[in-house]
From TrEMBL, chain A:
Signal peptide: none
Domain F-box: from-to ranges: 7-47
Domain of life: Eukaryota
Protein name: Phytochrome A-associated F-box protein
InterPro entries linked: EID1-like, F-box-like_dom_sf, F-box_dom
UniProtKB/TrEMBL annotation, chain B:
Domain of life: Eukaryota
Species annotation: Arachis duranensis (Wild peanut)
Identification of the protein by name: SKP1-like protein 11 isoform X4
Cleaved signal peptide residues: 1-28
Signal keyword on record: yes
SKP1 component POZ domain boundaries: 48-111
UniProt-listed Pfam families: Skp1 (PF01466), Skp1_POZ (PF03931)
Family: Belongs to the SKP1 family.
Record-annotated SKP1 component dimerisation domain positions: 150-195
Annotated GO biological process: jasmonic acid mediated signaling pathway; protein ubiquitination; ubiquitin-dependent protein catabolic process
């Protein structure tokens, strides 16, 4: 069979072919990594040469932010649950179809919108005193979720060297440490079970404010490994 | 390599009006021929040829400078003097006649048409690579063996286009991967995590 010949390609030829793929689209690496263990191993060995995606260069030997997790951060939306928009405890009186649709958006899924992460977007989220912390967030507009009350634009991201950041110090500081911990069903990107509410810890810009019904305009949660999940909403035109 | 120097020297000597007159018939059309080639022909000095021998023992005579420009392996052999023009032929035991002829066509075209506009060259390349999987694989192996960089890049790009945007199961078919190597649990986990990609 003609196609059988391609199974004999050497590693360096395969690497050369993979390197031709568009590095800005993280799908390619996700797909190729899942084709077979040989491709997965080649991509791991050459991940800094192939399809380099920021912020992977910040995490050279980090076991909690492996290439696979960093890749997932690019295109996996955390879902309404992990972004803290809904809770796991039921929906009230919704019809079965609506309930099923909502279930689909609860958990992680392929994100709509742009799949690149940028530090600039992370800087726009954090309050001034945290501007030296390095946070990468997916670019605007995030993954759009149209819900009854309003539109939610879910985002995800990661802190570089999270335990060295001022945000981490602020979260662990003082008497209110326990109150800042929330349950959003664990982190969508790692095994971390607990998350911290960045909004109530005053880590986000004050200007974001609240809607009339008390919902924050921007919410964000971070796990112990620095993975961030959150949601933007549209700022009300008239206060 | 001395031939290239001669060619450059001649180019420097020629008046520009001569370029306008340097046309010759090729395949029923009149095309512009680099004046230095015509002048060399008029001077009675044949372009140096080398002999390439396919795995089927068929001999192909080709301009030395064409192969030297494109193949690192052949360039090295001629530069280090291991190739004797009078007696030698270069044996290419892993390239069959059909593939060798195509490789020579590619190198010859790109040498003689390097001044063509990019669109025309790309169109020619696309037509050149309009072959079946067997042919593509043979060309890839030949280009890899002879270290013909631009042909390799072209073929890598073609194979990349074959797999770009394809689902995992389709890529496995293209590469004939029967045993992907993942445990059943790993495969199930991957399918659960990225269902859209299967």
């Amino acid at each position: 069979m003609a196609e059988a010949l391609f199974s004999y390609l050497s590693d360096d030829i395969l690497v050369s072919i993979f390197s031709k793929l568009d590095g800005s689209d993280p799908r390619h690496r996700a797909v190729l990594s899942s084709v077979c263990t040989r491709f997965c191993s080649l991509l791991r060995q050459h991940h800094r040469l192939l399809l380099p995606l920021p912020p992977s260069h910040h995490f050279p030997n980090d076991s909690t932010n492996t290439p696979e997790i960093l890749l997932k951060l690019h295109f996996c939306c955390p879902g309404l649950l992990h972004a803290g928009v809904v809770s796991e405890s039921g929906f009230g009186s919704e019809d079965p179809i609506g309930k099923r649709r909502k279930l689909c958006n609860q958990k992680e899924h392929l994100a709509s919108g742009v799949w690149s992460l940028s530090r600039e977007q992370g800087s726009k989220l954090l309050a001034r005193q945290f501007r030296d912390d390095c946070l990468y967030i997916c670019d605007w507009p995030g993954c759009l979720h149209l819900e009854e009350k309003r539109k939610y634009r879910l985002f995800r991201g990661v802190f570089v060297d999270f335990k060295e950041t001022r945000v981490w110090k602020a979260l662990n500081d003082g008497k209110n440490k326990v109150k800042r911990k929330v349950d959003v069903g664990g982190c969508a990107f790692c095994k971390s079970e607990e998350s911290w509410d960045l909004h109530s810890a005053f880590c986000l810009r004050r200007v974001f404010g609240f809607h009339d019904d008390g919902e924050p305009v921007v919410r964000a949660f971070v796990c112990d490994n620095g993975h961030v999940s959150g949601a933007w909403t549209d700022v009300p035109m008239y206060s | 390599m001395e031939l290239l120097c001669i060619r450059q020297w001649i180019s420097g000597l020629l008046p520009t009006w001569l370029s306008a007159w340097c046309i010759k018939p090729v395949g029923g059309a009149l095309v512009r021929q680099e004046p230095e080639y015509i002048l060399l022909a008029l001077m009675g000095s044949p372009l140096k040829k080398i002999m390439l021998c396919s795995s089927e023992k068929e001999i192909f005579s080709v301009e030395e400078q064409v192969m030297v420009q494109h193949s690192v392996i052949i360039n090295n052999m001629i530069e280090d003097g291991s190739y004797n023009h009078e007696e030698s032929k270069i044996p290419l035991d892993c390239v069959d006649s059909k593939t060798l002829k195509k490789v020579i066509d590619y190198c010859t075209h790109h040498t003689h048409h390097h001044n063509d506009n990019q669109e025309d060259l790309e169109a020619w390349d696309a037509q050149f690579l309009n072959v079946d999987s067997n042919g593509l694989y043979d060309l890839l192996m030949a280009a890899n063996y002879l270290e013909i960089r631009n042909l390799l890049d072209l073929i890598y790009g073609t194979i990349k286009n074959m797999i770009k945007g394809k689902k995992i199961d389709e890529i496995r078919r293209i590469f004939n991967i029967k045993d992907h190597g993942f445990t059943p649990e790993e495969e199930e986990q991957n399918r659960k995590e990225y269902p859209h990609f299967y």
